[in-house]
Specification:
The structure holds 2 protein chains of 2 kinds. Chain A is mainly alpha-helical. Helix content of chain A is 48%, strand content 0%. The structure holds iron/sulfur cluster (2 copies).
Chain lengths: 183, 296
């Protein structure tokens, strides 16, 4: 596609920002007045030309839904919260960006690494599989044995959350249910 | 110190996987300071690494940990600031928001757990300062690290976002500095002290994260520090385990040893490098140990 896809009116979803605002952690998106403090203090923006938290917020405000949720750069946020602490408007920038990631994930757009760690979590209770060598090393160092996670209980804790859809959900139509919890 | 502090130790994922040196040194140091650590049964990931995927999932993971700790009836101590931050945020939200608590408890009740809001969560830095106290730490020093110059790196999640963590000033972090000075070592100032290590995006874009590591190591070196001191397993992996990769990537040499604070404190308390898990470090702090005459 040669033209700027996102600029076409048909691609604009004016209600998108309200949708973001209703998500846990997304509310403050409406307060951003585009001063640029977040971008100028963002460590990732210093080393990546494409990553600009202010643009991400602006794109979302403008309703460029597909363009934001489909972007690779969304996943570059390091969650350092520098922007959140420094925004003069009280925008919880890192949480808004995390909200956008969650929305992308609900539509099945998930970087492989997150699928991997979720798979491990369901198997072990941790995001890593602790190798035998580390268990042995623990003993050698005089450390107590590692407590085992209760996988069954853990899985049941997730209740109605459709976790499998995260792992299989390449198809955006298989939307995982809206998140209601938390603020 | 009145009654000896007693905590449930929450290890999280990164420490058992890669950073045993932090665990070993923390256990030895806390033990000597009279702290009792109880193993946390059935704990699971705090949820932070999965937050980009689902906030709800993170919430349930951390709520479950809190409910397990409540059943034991002890406050949680974590070595990882990320775990501390996540558990603290969840703890606070569930204490404050009744509707949220009810919904979470509905799910927890299915596995016989309940969030009541009866415990607190602290990162080891916070516990050292608030519960053990700098005076008691100083009393335990038998080998003051005079002449040693180190740089501190607190890591983002120990203080940010300020509104939720309420421990430290993220723009001017002091806790780790005070803890370092208690050992007799000097804490040097350097450029970019509060900069992120980039670990959370290492798997997404290692060029950005390793650039952040490079910048940090260069600044620490320029300040003339004998070592960089961390209190976060993730930051430690970035600066120590990844240092050689960064050196290769940029064709530079840094040779900045990276120690867990508990290793530094342990040395000052008279423990040996072996006891404190120094073998596990990738960048060997030989010069530093010579300087304080731990090795000759
Ligand atoms: S610092 Fe806050 S107000 Fe300024 S551009 Fe960023 S989010 Fe918007
Ligand atoms: S939280 Fe993300 S957007 Fe904000 S400063 Fe850190 S890396 Fe940049």
């Amino acid at each position: 596609m040669s033209e700027d896809e996102g600029a076409r009116p048909s691609k604009i979803d004016p209600k998108f920002r309200y949708e973001v605002a209703r998500m846990p952690g997304g509310k403050s998106i409406l307060q951003c007045f585009q001063c640029g403090t977040c971008t100028s203090d963002c460590p990732v923006a210093r080393f990546n030309e494409k990553y600009r938290p202010r643009y991400i917020i602006r794109m979302a405000q403008l309703g460029l839904r597909e363009r934001v949720l489909n972007s690779d750069f969304l996943w570059l946020c390091a969650s350092c919260f520098t922007c959140t602490d420094r925004c003069p408007q009280g925008v919880e920038v890192a949480s808004v960006i995390r909200t956008l990631k969650n929305m992308a994930a609900m539509e099945g757009r998930i970087p492989q690494v997150f699928k991997d760690i979720l798979g491990t979590l369901l198997k072990t209770g941790y995001i890593y599989e602790i190798p035998e060598s580390r268990i042995k090393r623990r003993e050698a160092l005089g450390l107590p044995p590692l407590p085992k996670a209760n996988i069954e209980s853990l899985a049941r804790t997730f209740g109605s959350m459709n976790i499998k859809a995260f792992l299989e959900g390449e198809d955006p139509s298989k939307k995982i249910r809206e998140v209601k919890l938390w603020a | 110190m009145g009654v000896a502090p007693k905590y449930l130790l929450f290890l999280g994922c990164a420490i058992p996987y890669r950073v045993l040196s932090f665990e070993v040194s923390a256990r030895r140091v806390l033990g000597k300071l009279g702290v009792e650590l109880v193993e946390m049964p059935e704990f699971n990931c705090c949820g932070l690494p999965l937050e980009p995927l689902s906030h709800e999932l993170t919430l349930m993971l951390s709520a479950r940990n809190l409910a397990v700790a409540e059943r034991v009836g002890l406050n949680i101590l974590t070595l990882c600031p990320g775990c501390a931050g996540t558990l603290k945020k969840t703890n606070r939200a569930l204490k404050e928001e009744k509707a949220l608590r009810e919904e979470v408890n509905k799910r927890l009740s299915e596995v016989g757990l309940e969030f009541k809001g009866s415990i607190d969560v602290k990162h080891i830095s916070q516990a050292l300062i608030e519960d053990i106290g700098l005076a008691n730490i100083k009393k335990a020093i038998v080998r003051p690290l005079k002449g040693l110059k180190v740089a501190e790196h607190s890591g983002c999640h120990l203080s940010r976002p300020k509104k939720y963590i309420e421990f430290e000033d993220p723009e001017n972090p002091k806790a780790l500095k005070m803890l370092i000075e208690a050992t007799g070592a000097k804490c040097v100032e350097y450029k970019g002290e509060t900069e992120c290590c980039g670990s959370t995006i290492a798997a997404i874009d290692d060029k950005v994260s390793l650039s952040l590591v490079r910048e940090k190591l260069l600044n620490v070196k320029e300040a003339g520090a004998d070592a960089l001191i961390t209190v976060c397993p993730a930051c430690h992996v970035m600066y120590d385990a990844n240092q050689i990769r960064v050196e290769r990537m940029f064709g530079e040499k840094y040779e900045v040893p990276v120690l867990h604070y508990t290793q530094l404190l342990g040395l000052a308390m008279g423990m040996s490098p072996e006891e404190l898990g120094f073998d596990e470090l990738r960048v060997k702090p030989l010069k530093m140990l010579e300087k304080i005459q731990v090795i000759k």
